[in-house]
Amino acid sequence: MKITVKVIGPFIYQTGFSEKEIEVKEPVTAGQLLSLINLPEDRPKIVTRNGKAVAPKEELQDGDRIAICPIYSGG
Amino acid sequence: MNGWTGNLLRINLTTGTVKKETFSDEFAKKWVGGRGFALKILWDELKPGIDPLGPENKLIVALGPIAGVPAPNTGKTIVAAKSPLTGGYGDGNLGTRVTMELRKAGYDGLIIEGRSGSPVYLSIVDDRVEILPAGEIWGKGTYETNDWIYKKYGKAAGVLTIGQGGENKVLYAVIRSLEGRAGGRPGIGAVMGSKNLKAIVVKGSGEIPVADPAGMKTLGAGDLRKVGEIDKKTGWSIQGTNGVLSWLNEVAALPVGNMRKTSHPDAWKIDGQRLNAARIATYGCPNCTMRCGIAIHDHEGRESELDYENIGMLGSNLEIFDLDQVASLNYLCDEYGLDTISAGAVLGFYADAVARGDVKGDFKFGDAERAKELLRMTAYREGVGDFLAEGTMRMARKIGRNSIDYAIQVKGLECSAYNCKFVPGMALAFATSPIGAHHKESWVIMFEITQTSRDSYGPEKAQKVVDLQRIRGGIFEFIVSCRFPWIELGWDLQHYADYFNKITGLNWTLDDLYKVGDRIYSLMKLFWLREFPNWDRTMDYPPKVWFDPSNADKEGPIAGKILEWDKYQKLLDSYYQIRGWDKRGIPTKKTALELGLAKEAAEVEKIGRLE
């Protein structure tokens, strides 16, 4: 299935992309998807699916849009 | 007294007199500095009901014990007055070399009163304090004014200026410093302009009094380096505050089209990646190792320093998705000395009102060239600019009908760049911010959307708002230091208690500091109550359009969702309960007494009963 991954803020310089569609084998959870992307494990992350919070154990669906963002606390 | 110089400088612009005054140890420990000093001085010295733009108002510049001492991000200064925009207590902070220069000159603050008969600037070089003619720079923008002062005093001088916006008393005029720093959103620049005061320049040659100078020097220098290292490791300042724009667009909380919409397909054109790619320079405040000011060339080729709030309000909120045009609007706001957040909100409200047919006009969302012209007209109060200079609350009142429902403001101060039509906790944060809607007091939006149920109105959200207000609107505003190392890099809050103790020689805990913050928050509320004797909880309501089902998104993650009125009331009740305030949002007598506000409570009881 195809998942669109959007990477936000300084993470894009670590993953090397800001947005791309990736093909993954079903089933895949949000947590498993993160391990497929080159992100520092020790950095706290906020993950949303289609604009809503998603737990690491939740299984993704074909066509989902996943956004991965470092934690911001507001300027 | 270590940690404080123990001196305030009182300048009367009507009489041209200058007086150095001392303050007591008790005053220092009760109010600490910054917002605490400013609030208490204004409370004691202003008669209720005075015209904020009259000579009776006072402009306060206030520092705290940590201000200017070499340690992470200590270059901030507080500016305050009774606000002409809101009619209540108003303040703001900005990075400036005034912070360290004023402390080195031997003062913890300025009380500027009266009104000069002609334009002047204030020159403070240690004990030599002069009120000097400013005819040459009156009418000039802030950049030219800065250059004029730098030529006379050198670039190391601390400088605060106003632009044409402050001179012409635009109600959201700010005070400016350095390349792109600004503070005093609730019209503190207009108060400065009303006094015919164009600039304040400070040079000091003494030492900031520190109880343990050697220990603090080692600790401060080491921690400055460590904060810089964490910043480099995380990459936070590559995109600075504008990193968050893309996330807000993803979760439907971006201000778009007067905050009627929550995301836009072109948002990527003004995001953090594009900003970093266009970067020509990076600026920060004094004593900062995580510089957040990213400068780019604007549409006219000028250097313009941007952060997220500027881009959210002058970009997406106006549906202008050309970064160089957003930079132009930002440059003009900085040059004229206008608050970028309120300017973006005002233009958005105006475009929305024109689109709805509430007013006749030619401004449409997306029209950058007309927006530039409107900013110029606002700064000079020319034509429709005189209307725009009044801020959204007054504009709406003038328009009449239900126009106020679409004014994205609370207490008269426009909301910062977070669209809360379906973010209840952040809406509460805006609504209960003690100077009107401002993100600086409490920013719960990311916590709320990702760590809680977004549609919950539970007390945990009110608790989080209070927790953050006690730190952001509390501790950082009265010790006077930038909150960024703590909020964005996780720099432990205990460090600030350690700095405070090393500087003052006291042995305070964070709880001791929290109590000062609670005292200040309650006195700010009493200040408002004294100005608005009929105060009730309606003063703590978010913009009405955020509750209007017809304004809900039609698609996307919050399709069909909107704030719910009854549930918001319960959330507000929870907030009041945590603060020890009654259902009107007023501190109870018990709370006031516990916080050491007996005298202040007794004064308020002359106009209304405290429960």
Please report which band the strand proportion of chain A falls in: under 5%, 5-15%, 15-25%, 25-35%, 35-45% or over 45%: 25-35%
The number of strands of chain B is: 17
User: Structural class of the secondary elements of chain A?
Assistant: alpha+beta
Helix content of chain B: 40-55%
Count, helices of chain B: 25
DSSP helix fraction of chain A = 10-25%
Averaged pLDDT of chain B, please?
97
List strands and helices in order, with pairings:
The complex is a heterodimer of chains A (75) and B (611).
Chain A (H helix, E strand, L loop, with lengths): L1 E6 L3 H5 L3 E5 L6 H6 L9 E5 L2 E2 L11 E6 L5
Parallel strand pairs in A: 1-5
Antiparallel strand pairs in A: 1-2, 3-4, 3-5
Chain B lengths: L6 E6 L4 E6 L2 H7 L3 H11 L13 E4 L13 E7 L6 E7 L2 H7 L4 E5 L6 E6 L2 E6 L8 H12 L4 E4 L2 H4 L7 E3 L3 E3 L4 H7 L2 E7 L9 H22 L1 H4 L4 H7 L21 H6 L3 E3 L9 E5 L5 E4 L1 H7 L8 H14 L3 H17 L11 H13 L4 H4 L2 H9 L9 E2 L2 E2 L9 H9 L12 H7 L7 H22 L3 H6 L4 H11 L5 H22 L33 H15 L9 H6 L3 H7 L7
Parallel strand pairs in B: 1-6, 7-12
Antiparallel strand pairs in B: 1-2, 3-4, 3-6, 4-5, 7-8, 9-12, 10-11, 13-14, 14-15, 16-17
